[in-house]
Amino acid sequence: MAEYENRCGTIEIRNIEPSDFAALGREHDLVVVAPGKRSFGEYFGERPDVSPYAKPQRHLAVGFWDGVEQTDPRAVTMSISPGHGELLDLPITTFDGWASALLCENVPGGDLEILMTQKESDDPDAYRQLLLDKLKVHHPTVYKRIDQSRFRLMRPGDILQGAVRPVIRDDYRLLDDGTVVLALGDAHSTVDPVTGQGANSASFEAQVVADAIIEDEIVDERFAKNVALRRRERVDGLSAWVNTMIATPTPPHLQKLLGAMSQMRTLCDEFTENFSHPHRNGDMVATPERVDAAIARHASLGAATASGKVA
Ligand SMILES: Cc1cc2nc3c(=O)[nH]c(=O)nc-3n(C[C@H](O)[C@H](O)[C@H](O)COP(=O)(O)OP(=O)(O)OC[C@H]3O[C@@H](n4cnc5c(N)ncnc54)[C@H](O)[C@@H]3O)c2cc1C
Predict the structure, then answer these.
(1) Could you tell me the pTM of the whole model?
(2) Is the CB of 33 inside a 6 Å radius of any atom of ligand 1?
């Protein structure tokens, strides 16, 4: 923010509603709307072809916990309890040093859903014990790394319980005078956090808009369409990937891919590298045939490596 002001930008902190857009449009060439998922996302219409879910597919509980031994090397890990949900252990720096952000992605109606519905603030000790009990049964590899004498939230209140409905909204609207009002970040595309991509996607979108502003001379509907086209491959592909990850029951071809990854290092590496190109994972998991093709490609790579044909 300081850098923005150093470069002659002006920051004004106040509440904005859609009724303010016309006045903003008279002062500015472009109105970019990025109020996150809870706010006036409904100003932009939904794109039903890429928004398959009417409600959240995971009931979430995420806390910053002390007492979870970090992996060596320090890494994000994902544990899956079929039919009940995923647990992401994300190493994270906090005000008080390293912690584990344990993100419980619980299937609605499953045994772990209670981790969202039982409010931690009602009885923190009971919640801590509940979490330990559930981890022991459903996510034993993470449970094994917990030192129970230290296991507690880093600070009271370091926990979030709720749910996210994935949705992609229209890219823009035009005001009566032609001003472009552009949706950005969660207001444009909200994904479940199971693959930790929302903020990455929001910053990607911001870069696309910044580039377009620099390259184009005019901010009009053509500008808005260009922005929409440039970000669509990645945003839609990312969303398709995440929506497959949270499908219930887990599609057999995704199970097959996860199983194959546990046996094939190079396939696992490609999937992980694709966190920087998430639409490629959208392509990989789109159909059973695409999963088979990815597995076959890595199997032949492994065979070639074993026979010395690939250095
Ligand atoms: C549990 C969980 C874990 C996540 N983990 C990851 C992760 O590991 N990696 C990742 O990349 N993403 C992650 N995400 C997603 C990420 O948090 C969001 O995608 C990202 O914050 C979206 O950025 P944004 O700028 O669009 O919206 P936000 O970050 O929500 O910012 C919106 C801003 O607009 C302000 N605002 C809202 N309404 C108004 C109004 N009317 N007037 C003025 N201001 C307003 C808000 O106060 C806020 O400051 C996670 C999300 C959740 C829920």
Answers:
(1) 0.93
(2) no
